[in-house]
Amino acid sequence: MRPVTLQLADMSDLDIPVLRAEIGGRVSTWPVELHYFPACESTNKECQQLAQHGSIVLAERQTAGRGRRGNVWHSPLASNIYCSIGLQKTLEARYLGLLSLQVGICIAQVLREQGFDAAELKWPNDVLLDGKKLGGILIETRALTVDTFFLVIGFGLNVHLDESTIQAINQPAVSLSQHSARAINRQLLLAEIISRIMNSIMQFDLHRIDALLIEFNQYDCLRGLPVVVKNAGQEIHGVHLGIAKTGEIQVRTDRGVELFSAAEISLRRAPGDAID
Question: Which ranges in the chain belong to alpha helices (H)?
């Protein structure tokens, strides 16, 4: 897909009809329904209620945004990107964990194409810039049949955060505007990220797993490094070896190579502070 070059622009409201047309031009295999909210509890919740394949929910502010394991997502008004995409996908349940990695790759690709060369990913769902948290991914699923699911793919990115907001976040955080000498046009960024996610998720199948894992390695900020896995109150030390074909993390410990799923653990680099 062709990258979109971000133009100099003052921060302004999104032009929803134009954005809908831009996304529709890139995703031509099914209708796209874009829903815009000045504020909502969470875009994931709105998308779940719509339960419509091809639905996109955007908000300028979330009053109850959340991340993995119920973490709060800070959502100041008209400063960032808050988006959820609803898609119906047929895939064996044990491979669903790979989809978060695919979404992360899409976001990191677009960011690097736009000059944010320090964009990285932290398994399973964090987007980093210069080692600090830039955004996150939250995918929620509802089974329709034994191997068909309705996916709500939520992602958030810090675009404009002032220093006081960054200091209030309980982990190292960053926004795109801190790493750019030019104003950032959210509209163009959204059009490219959303369309790339939608196309890549719908094209994903089991034949693409090896390629996905190789590509994720290019963005993985912890691969090959010492890590600490927090699991059921225990801290397990080891070396991050990469991602298994079912989306679990592989860690070499003193007991051998162990696999951990995203639902079970918190992961951080060792030594050092968590980027959880």
Answer: 16-26, 43-50, 98-113, 163-168, 186-203, 209-217
